[in-house]
């Protein structure tokens, strides 16, 4: 009798992949809405254009592989990949950078390994790292948030998207950028003299992270993933930031709340590291996987060259996921310890 060979994600029900992917897309809506409020409609343009490019590439690849494209286009998986990537991009990224990033995610991050269920790395983070290394200037050009500058209109957004060289928007260093570039100021001086820090963790950024937290908690309630990896990552990042905070000297790693509620921290904890294909599969493995990402995020932020280190931390731990799985396999029911 032949055995059925299937690949992850393993879920029951003929519509399980579609249901999970649709739920993830819905859960991003609060965060995207808050990003649109603080940065304008640029993120929406990125998501729409990136989705169209992703669907076109998915259909092309399926045709080249001589498979029916319909089922793969209707399961929302490629839209999840493009949406997560485009959320991570600066709000007024030129269209061609969006296209390069989505192509890298879909082709290099997903289909070069065989498609959904075979990719060892998170596809969205593959595309993000390709862009971050190739176009560092554009990838650091975050616009100033509402409250510190005027939010661009829809017309300005189209100009920035299609004719970036004719758009002169106001960009501003993010709180994590300022921490990384600090040249000798005490933390109290840095946070009080830079308007970007706001009251807690950055104007706009704290609300964006809270909105993604709401979406992530809803996914937990829907049992789309377990709590192990997100909680472990946030706990490890919190502990690392506490240990690295020496009271606020110029060499301090920065306040804990800035690390938790600025940049892509919450977005990464609930929408990136919970990818069922490229992460660890056992609950114990997910705890190790998430905790290691939290530590790596802090170490790269504090001592590396990239202010928001989530993508690199995730890809490094994607390498380690099979190793973690090997040593955290649950004991077979009815079998005792090897001793």
UniProtKB/TrEMBL annotation:
Could you name the Gene Ontology cellular component terms for this entry? plasma membrane
* Cofactor(s) listed in the protein's UniProt record: FMN
Give the stretches traversing the membrane: 44-61, 73-90, 197-220, 227-245, 257-274, 286-303, 309-328
Q: What is its EC number?
A: 7.-.-.-
UniProt-listed InterPro entries: NqrB/RnfD (IPR004338), RnfD_bac (IPR011303)
Lipid biosynthesis keyword on record: no
> Which keywords appear in this protein's UniProt record, sorted alphabetically?
Cell inner membrane, Cell membrane, Electron transport, Flavoprotein, FMN, Membrane, Phosphoprotein, Translocase, Transmembrane, Transmembrane helix, Transport
Report the subcellular localization: Cell inner membrane
Q: Name one Pfam family in it.
A: NQR2_RnfD_RnfE
Q: What is its main location?
A: membrane
FMN phosphoryl threonine-modified residues are where? 174
Question: What topology in the membrane does the UniProt record assign?
Answer: Multi-pass membrane protein
Stated role: Part of a membrane-bound complex that couples electron transfer with translocation of ions across the membrane.
Which family is this protein grouped under? Belongs to the NqrB/RnfD family.
What name does UniProt use for this protein? Ion-translocating oxidoreductase complex subunit D
| Organism, scientific name | Luminiphilus syltensis NOR5-1B
């Amino acid at each position: 009798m032949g055995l059925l060979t299937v690949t992850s994600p393993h879920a029951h029900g003929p519509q399980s992949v579609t249901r999970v992917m649709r739920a993830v897309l819905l859960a991003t809506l609060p965060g995207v809405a808050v990003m649109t409020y603080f940065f304008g409609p640029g993120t929406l343009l990125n998501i729409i254009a990136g989705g169209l490019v992703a669907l076109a590439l998915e259909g092309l690849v399926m045709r080249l592989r001589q498979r029916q494209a319909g089922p793969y286009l209707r399961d929302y998986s490629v839209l999840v990949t493009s949406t997560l990537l485009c959320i991570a991009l600066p709000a007024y990224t030129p269209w061609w950078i969006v296209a390069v990033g989505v192509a890298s995610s879909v082709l290099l991050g997903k289909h070069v390994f065989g498609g959904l269920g075979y990719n060892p790395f998170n596809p969205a983070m593959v595309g993000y790292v390709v862009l971050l290394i190739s176009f560092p200037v554009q990838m650091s050009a975050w616009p100033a948030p509402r409250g510190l500058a005027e939010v661009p209109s829809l017309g300005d957004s189209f100009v920035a998207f299609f004719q970036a060289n004719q758009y002169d928007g106001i960009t501003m260093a993010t709180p994590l950028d300022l921490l990384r570039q600090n040249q000798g100021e005490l933390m109290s001086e840095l946070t009080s003299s830079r308007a970007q820090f706001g009251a807690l963790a950055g104007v706009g950024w704290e609300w964006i992270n809270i909105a993604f937290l709401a979406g992530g908690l809803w996914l937990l309630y829907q049992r789309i993933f377990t709590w192990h990896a997100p909680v472990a990552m946030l706990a490890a990042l919190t502990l690392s930031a506490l240990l690295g905070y020496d009271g606020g000297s110029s060499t301090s790693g920065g306040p804990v709340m800035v690390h938790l509620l600025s940049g892509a921290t919450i977005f990464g904890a609930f929408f990136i590291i919970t990818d069922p294909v490229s992460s660890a599969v056992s609950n114990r493995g997910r705890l190790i996987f998430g905790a290691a990402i939290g530590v790596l995020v802090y170490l790269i932020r504090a001592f590396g060259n990239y202010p928001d280190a989530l993508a690199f931390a995730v890809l490094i731990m994607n390498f380690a996921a099979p190793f973690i799985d090997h040593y955290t396999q649950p004991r077979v029911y009815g079998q005792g310890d090897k001793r």
